[in-house]
Amino acid sequence: MKILVPVKQIGVVDEDFELRGDGKDVDPDFLNFEANEWDDYSYEAALQIMEAADGVEVVPVTVGPDDAEDVLRRCLAKGGERGIRVWDDALEDASPAAIVQVLAKVVEKEQPDMVFTGTLSSDRSYAQTGVGLAAALGWPHAAVITGIEWKPGDPKATLLRELEGGLVEQLSVNCPVVLTIQLGINTPRYASLRGVKQAKEKPVEDLSLADLGLSGDDLAAAGGSFRVRRMYKPETGQAELIEGTPAEQAARLVEIINELKGAA
Amino acid sequence: MCIGVLKAPTTFLETTVIEAGQNPEQVTRILFQDFPAWMLVSFYVVAFCAIAVFLYGCYAQVRKYARGRSLSKDGLWSGIKRMIEALLTHRTLRRRDAEAGRNHALIFFGFVLLFIGTSTITLEYDILEPLTGLKFWYGSFYLWFSLILDIAGTGFVIGLLYMMYRRKWLALPKLDYRRPDRDPSDPDYARDWYRLEDWLFLWALVLLGVTGFLLEAARLVWLQNDPTVWDYRWWSPVGAIVAYGYKAVGLTSAGAGDLRIGLWWFHGLLALTFIAVIPYTKAKHIVTAMASLALRDAKPAAHLPDADLTAKKVGADSITDFTWKQLLNFDACTKCGRCHEACPANATGFPLSPRDLILTLRELSNATLEGISMPPQDRLAAIGDGVNQVRPETLWSCRTCAACVEICPVGIEHVPVIVEMRRALVDASEMEPSLQKALQNIHNKGNSLGENKRKRTAWTKKLDFEIKDARKEAVDVLWFVGDFASFDPRYQRVSQAFARILRHAGVDFGILYEAEMNAGNDVRRVGEEGLFQHLAESNIETLQECDFKRIVTTDPHSYNTIRNEYPDFEGVYEIEHASAMIQRMLANGQIALKKKLGSRVTYHDPCHLGRLNKGFDPPRESIRMLGADLVEMERSRDNSFCCGAGGGRIWIPDPTDKEKPSENRVREAARIDGLEVLVVNCPKCMNMFEDARKSTGNEDNFRVMELIELVEECMALGDEAGPDAGGAPAGASPGDASPAAQGA
Ligand code: SF4
Ligand code: SF4
Q1: Is residue A54 part of a domain?
Q2: Which residues of A touch B429 (CB under 8 A)?
Q3: Confidence of residue B16 (pLDDT cuts 50, 70, 90)
Q4: Ligand 2 mean position to B406 CA, how many Å?
Q5: Which atom of ligand 1 is nearest to B399's Cα?
Q6: What's the ipTM?
């Protein structure tokens, strides 16, 4: 009995940042790398199932460069005995469809009974990986899950989804299944630094595309439903806090109104 | 030889007090005279049984302690010396309850003397005389001893009567055993059996003392015709007075003889029972309190014990995870309630009383570790909701302010106990989400506020000069700024003021810029030992690369850990708190004041500077040098009341339905007539009190200001154009800032 949990290292943009030369992304110098928040919840959901039953294995997998291993270590600090990291330079800027290809191969290799992903990753917010993976595998899927009732061996899982207006939807789905997990489904545990250090002893299997029987061309062929043309920061309106005595404030206000009138 | 030496002084004294014609050897303590043999035999049987029960009890206690974690303790001799000093002066017992201390001294010294008296009789009668024929318990030695014991016994009884009065009529809140960490419906809420035990203990001792006198008097009346007894009656004055009382009500010599036998047995059996139960009852504090005092750590709260992160387990969630010393500590608590009274969490209705925490663990250890064999592991669990278990919310209520440790008369060290248990909670991820978030922020970004590293120095942008980057150039003074002083908008103004003061005083200083990380003081106190060690190691790595003479910080938390805990990680630095540096620079004129304050101010001691590091005076002296009228709050110096931010509680918002410790403190300040400024000396206190001033409606009554801000005000730096960015003001050389260069 195995649950595979794809997790992702995301880049968080600094307050002051610059764009990359090609204008299609943020210059990585201005990114801070962190674990995707949603994945904390999906991993926790898997760990809770593992802890409630015997013989369940939880395996975190990530597609990312060397330093993405931190994300796996943080997962392993909380539980689980091994992780998988897939990387190849060809995966730089990979589209969600390409990532799905890779993960589908990992599923083929690992033969898990369930796959839990986060609903989305906070850096790109595509929300495609989970559902795409289900499609690639031909598995059923359910998205934005806020409750799971399932134990190893059950042929069906009962799931909850929160809808607008405080409604809750209860679904039943055949297993194996890919679930994308929503924030708030549980309280993710804290990975203590001691845990993270000890997790360094746990094995992480590094796989290349070739190890999975894929090539850069396969990824290109997977393509994507879109491509990024450019990234930019829209002009934002200016706010100003007017300070001073009431008379000064009024004077400044008049000034602004005149400026705007002039501009209009 | 030995006999000669002992006899010589005795013989000398005989001539002074023993009447001519009487054989001094006959003037002695009447022990078993006229006892039938069966009585004597049964007495010895009972006595040996009592001693056996006592010894077994001692063995069981030692076995219990041995079931704790091992700990090697050095400095035992100095510890014993300190303990003896504490006992002789009763210093720890007199603090904040002088009356109880004095009366305890009467009981203690009375008990000790009576105990010595009784033991020497036993020594002579049962050991020395039968073995060597040596006798000293007669003549003037006996008489003097008799007098001293009478006085001791009187003090003993008076002290005990006071304690009874105190328990019954003073109704002290600290002696109320109802617990803040339990509901009235919980079985261990009121613990009436403690009260019962207290009273049994007091009554047993009072009866021992009183029957001792009655017995003495009965002996006098019984032997009133024996001049070697009656002539010396005033050597036992209390006995003599009672004897006259007996005679007045018509007691005859024969009647007194019978009374003597009855009282003798009552007194003897009571004493033996008392001895037998010492290891099993409150009475054991006689031994455990002394041991606990001798084993005290030099800095129990300022320097927390290291944890081995590679071990299978960190922290303590089972009673056997505590060290033998901690198990002994639990047994030493006398329920005096001083910690209970001092604790800011308890005072503001949080479910924590340091007394009850210790007592809970004591009950758990007594219930599980005193038996011949060990119970199953699950019964040893120390954290939980059950009876004899400490609840997680209790542990999270603590501010690690050390008010408890500081006042405990028997040297119990609560803070390390709490932190060890928190370590177990953190390892099991049982904590408030807000705390988890703060720890994650520190882990990811090096600061608890989750701010980008680069923003750490944003506060310096408002200065009209640039602060040196200590990573790039040598400085005299390295200023470790700390998280709150860097990011908290209110305190940023203080940091800016401190920078201006240093610059104006010609101090050659620099900061670590974005390489500085949270110092880890509170991270350690929260129980996240791994992260603490990581922070300490990272900061030390950065500091090792820099060239500086000493460190200064405005943050008492950073100060504490760098000063006391970094040395364990090979980070040994000379560090001082900003207030000490300011005091020095004010004293030697390096800070020139342009005006004086006339205002009425009070000063709040930050726990980490005051109680933990004894930095009570420099800030006060500085305030006085500024010309302010310093009025102390009711609780000050070592009895300062924590602002509530310590122990990581700055990251766990206090619930809004209770009074916050900071509000309690601000209200205390507000009771000072005409108060204008509450002076703080710590970024976290500032943050807490600024809020509390508003939430208690004191916004218009007084201001909360940093000592540094007051200094800047008096330097009138704002009133003139600042010196050019680039050069230090004339007349000051960078070397001036070093304490050595300043001489006085
Ligand atoms: S350290 Fe302070 S808050 Fe914690 S138990 Fe002791 S007195 Fe109470
Ligand atoms: S722990 Fe110390 S201060 Fe607190 S009740 Fe016990 S003996 Fe008194």
Answers
A1: yes
A2: 78, 189-190, 192
A3: low
A4: 10
A5: 3
A6: 0.82
Domain spanning B2-27+35-292: CATH superfamily: Transmembrane di-heme cytochromes, Chain C (1.20.950.20)
Nearest CA residue ID for atom 2, ligand 1: B401
Q: Which atom of ligand 2 is nearest to the CA of B337?
A: 5
| CATH number of domain containing A17 | 3.40.50.620
**Do B290 and B83 form a contact (C-beta atoms < 8 A)?**
yes
Residue B7's pLDDT is 39
On whether residue A248 sits in a domain, the answer given is: no
Residue A121: CB atoms within 10 A of its CB come to 24
* Distance from C-alpha of B479 to C-alpha of B552, rounded to nearest angstrom: 5
Domain count, chain A: 1
Tell me the C-alpha distance between B533 and B524, whole Å: 8
Higher pLDDT, B148 or B29: B148
Contact B436 A197 (CB under 8 A): no
pLDDT in tens, B31-52: 777 788 888 899 999 999 999 9
What chain B residue is nearest to A190 in terms of C-alpha separation?
B429
Beta carbons within 8 Å of B149's beta carbon, 6+ residues apart: B113, B114, B117, B236
Q: For residue B408, which atom of ligand 2 is closest to its CA?
A: 3
Summary mean pLDDT of chain B = 91
CA of B537 to the centre of ligand 2 (A): 36
Distance CA B424, CA A188 (A): 17
pLDDT tens string B245-302: 999 999 999 999 999 999 999 999 999 999 999 999 999 999 999 999 999 998 999 9
d(CA A19, CA A16): 10
Flag whether pLDDT at B741 surpasses 80: no
CB neighbourhood size of A235 (10 A): 6
| Residue to substitute from A41, A192, A197, A198, interface B, most B β-carbons within 10 A | A192
Domain boundaries, chain B: 2-27+35-292, 333-430, 436-742
Span B545-583, pLDDT tens digits: 999 999 999 999 999 999 999 999 999 999 999 999 999
In sequence order, the β-bridge partners of residue A12 are A32
Domain B333-430 sits in CATH at 1.10.1060.10
- A259 assigned to some structural domain: no
- Answer whether residue A250 is part of any domain: no
Cβ-based contacts under 8 A for chains A and B: 40
pLDDT digits (tens, 9 = 90+) for B697-731: 999 999 999 999 999 999 987 654 444 433 344 44
- Binned at pLDDT 50, 70 and 90, residue A237 comes out as confident
* Three-state DSSP state, B622: helix
pLDDT tens digits for A166-189?
899 999 999 999 999 999 999 999
Which of B296, B340, B341, B346 gets mutated to test ligand 2 (max ligand atoms within 8 A of its CB)? B340
Report the separation in Å between the CA atom of B354 and the middle of ligand 2, taken as the mean of its atom positions: 8
Pick left, alpha or beta for residue A55 (phi over 0 → left; psi -120 to 50 → alpha; otherwise beta). left
- B398 CA to centre of ligand 1 in angstroms: 5
Q: Between chains, do A32 and B445 touch, taking CB under 8 Å as contact?
A: yes
Q: What domain range includes position A62?
A: 2-222
